[in-house]
Amino acid sequence: MTRAPRHNPVPVACLAALVILAACQREQEAAQRVWLGHWFALGETLSFVARRDCAVGLYSVVNAEVKSALPVTRDVAQMRREIAGRGAAALDLPGQAADVALVAMANHHRETGMAMRRAGIEARACMDARSESVFRHALDDGETVLAWDGARRALLLMMPGEGLLVVAMGEG
To answer: What are the pLDDT digits (tens) for 33-89?
Structure first.
């Protein structure tokens, strides 16, 4: 009587665990770099943390320009129109802190403004010391360019003077 060869169940279990673990991440660095690359000239990844409930990426930017694929606006009403039409937009208000712009968006269009704030708050669970420091500084900096990607529920803060971009995503 010939016995069928037995397969070692350990590799199969490991593969299943990897698939489940990958599904638990909110975002992956390579995927995040791809969609950000349409809007910003990215340099190196300085920090990236992703879990099921949040993702935070901190990148250097090669230049301080937002690419034309992401509309840059000068007031929250125009930003809201662009988000409604294109799904994403940036707000550049030199001299005004990004946190003030977030409040202005919440006052203008509560749903959008609160979604932006929620993404930043929920993402704190994925922030390491460096990304949290940059995020806090970016909120207070009057030169920060604030952006929102409604489809990904991602808050983006680019600090042109420091050459940094932080992306904050909550549960979505």
So the answer is: 999 999 999 999 999 999 999 999 999 999 989 999 999 999 999 999 999 999 999
Q: 135 with 118: CB under 8 angstroms?
A: no
pTM for the full model?
A: 0.85
Q: What are phi and psi of 41, to 5 degrees?
A: -90, 95
CB atoms within 10 A of CB 170: 23
Amino acid at 108: H
Nearest to 166 by CA among 54, 11, 51: 54
Tokens of 167: 């992306």
Q: pLDDT tens digits for 84-129?
A: 999 999 999 999 999 999 999 999 999 999 999 999 999 999 999 9
pLDDT band for position 146 (50/70/90)? Answer: very high
Nearest C-alpha neighbor of 67 from the set 87, 44, 89, 38: 38
Rounded Cα gap, residues 62 and 41, in angstroms: 5
Tally of residues, the chain: 172
- Closest to 24 (Cα-Cα) out of 63, 46, 53: 53
Give the sheet arrangement for strand 164-169, strand by strand.
40-51, 54-66, 164-169, 154-159, 145-149, 88-92, 72-73
